[in-house]
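Reproducibility note. Readers wishing to regenerate the assembly model reported in the main text can use the exact inputs given here. Chain order matters: entities are listed in the order in which they were concatenated for prediction.
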Amino acid sequence: MTAVGAAGVRPRPRRGWLGTLASTDHKALGAGLFTTAFGFFLAAGVLALLMRFELARPRLQLMTLHGYDELFTLHGSTMFYLFATPVALASGVYLVPLQIGAARLRWARVALAGWWMVIAGGLIMWMGFLTAQGAADVGWYSYWPLSDMPNSPGIGTDYWIVGILLAASAAILIAACVLATIVTLRAPGMTMLRLPVFTWTMVVTCLMVLTAFPALVVAMGLLLAQRQLGGVFSGASGAFDYQHLFWFFGHPVVYVVFFPFVGAIAEAIAIFSGRRWFGYRPFVLSLLLFAALSMSVWGHHMFTTSAVENRYFSLTSTALLVPAGIEYFDALATMWRGRIRFATPLLFALGFLVLFVIGGTTGIFVGSPPLDYHVTDSYFIVAHFHYTLFGGSVMGLFAAVYLWWPKVTGTLLSERLGRWHFWLTMVGMNVTFFPLFFLGWEGMPRRVADYPRSSGWETLNAVSSAGSALLLISLLVFLLNVARSLRRRVPAGPDPWGGQTLEWATSSPPPPENFPAPLPPVRSFAPLQDLREAAS
Amino acid sequence: MRRPGVAILVWAALLGALAVVLWAVFEEVDYLSVLMPAFAVAGTALIALAGWRAARRAGERAFAPQAVPETSWPAVLAALALALVLLGLEVGTFLCLIGAGLFAFAVGGLAREWRAERRTR
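Running the prediction on these inputs yields the following structure tokens for the assembly.
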């Protein structure tokens, strides 16, 4: 226990790496959770590469059919439960207190427990590979009755369920901490309509986690009970009940891992255009509408079951275009007549905008039941969601990393390596995933380790696999950039970009108390831009 | 929408409106399509209420001196103990019991931290 000074903050901690593992400082906590999640991203990326290399040619080369099932299950599960959701929340844990002028995170110990639950959940999930019958092989959504004991025997699936229970509960705990921080620890003058854009995206993200993730906890709890005891789900209605529960979480999670990076690219676009974000209030309203709609589209994953009201879910899925359109308009209008600097964070932000258009419009395409019937469970769907998740979330994540790296570490990343990273990712991403649209349209089903030579799918699969190798190279360039930055330690200064929000008003990295000097007055969502404009 | 409770309520209202369209306009609505959105709306309304109360109480206190533990090993232990309890459901009761014991120990540690914090206020 450390007593605090007059500003209500603690003195500079003297902790080693061991202390960091139990630190309640939101910055150590956010960085730790982020690093954990990024580690899982790399692990899931290795699984993706193995799958792509297997699919480069017909016939089985590297693995068995069952082994392939394990890989796609753990790839999807790790990406959603252990990488994307934790990394989105980690961004909030680190940045939200800084953006709202707070000295700490509310209920930091709860968030700390959440971080360790993610670690434990991940290890338990991956422990399945060490069991006799292998890891879970039921897909990331583990439809019942496929996931029931007779169809998927082996303890690997049970470990997988326990892992998800821990990771999902952790997400709920961490989201509660971030939301409570926003509600109770805002600096004087920081009303809700003066929250920075990124913080607003965290508000809706946390609300979605708090309302959608309990459905996953219930679904996984019931599935575990069904596997151990039986009698929970039964007949056709049991299968539909499970799907309802799962997708009530399963669609919102896509937006949970998307909104924070919308906030990140919005900050990057505003900073590197030298203008404040255009249309702030409509943007906030569109976020709320976007989030509400995304909680109301879960049934479109069940179009082909005939168990849902297709017209309603098609309507809400199509209506997502409206808030998305507002956000795109705001992004373009912010750049319009701005003094644009094409630094790496902006490049990734623009990459996000371009790629998410493809992911979003193909989402509207499959939001139409007749079109969905044609491409359901095909590689078209794989391409669509990788354009939203990789093209959207991962590009947005890298925009965030390049934007806030100087703030977090106090050092600069190389711009030259950053550009190489961007272009390799952009080319690699499109070469990997664009051919999958054609494969899916021609009928190649997803989740197959093999396909016939006569199918005519060889060339497109080979191209896609070559693209995944490019993505590997791009990631190595990024890791090289990170290592170089940490070794050379070129000082970044408190505000290397001309930032607009409060985190840029303190040193890099921020001291334990975040803001040793008095905060600048908060009269809008971009207080530092206010000061700059007042001075000019 | 300047206050957090109002912003969250606006979201609850949007969720509710979309759910009402599903329930009122369309015919094939199963019980989970009623229950899940209803829980989400009710949950959000509760969060709004809690947010409104917390924001009102926070006010001045948010920037008052606070004692904050620099590290919290009991929180870490609580998370790991919970993981052991869940893993014990698969591996065996003995692990559940070990996990539960460690969890109780962690709760004790957290209570001690909390009491120390209260004393410094």
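We highlight two features of this model. Chain B has two domains: 4-63, 73-120. Chain B has a mean pLDDT of 87.
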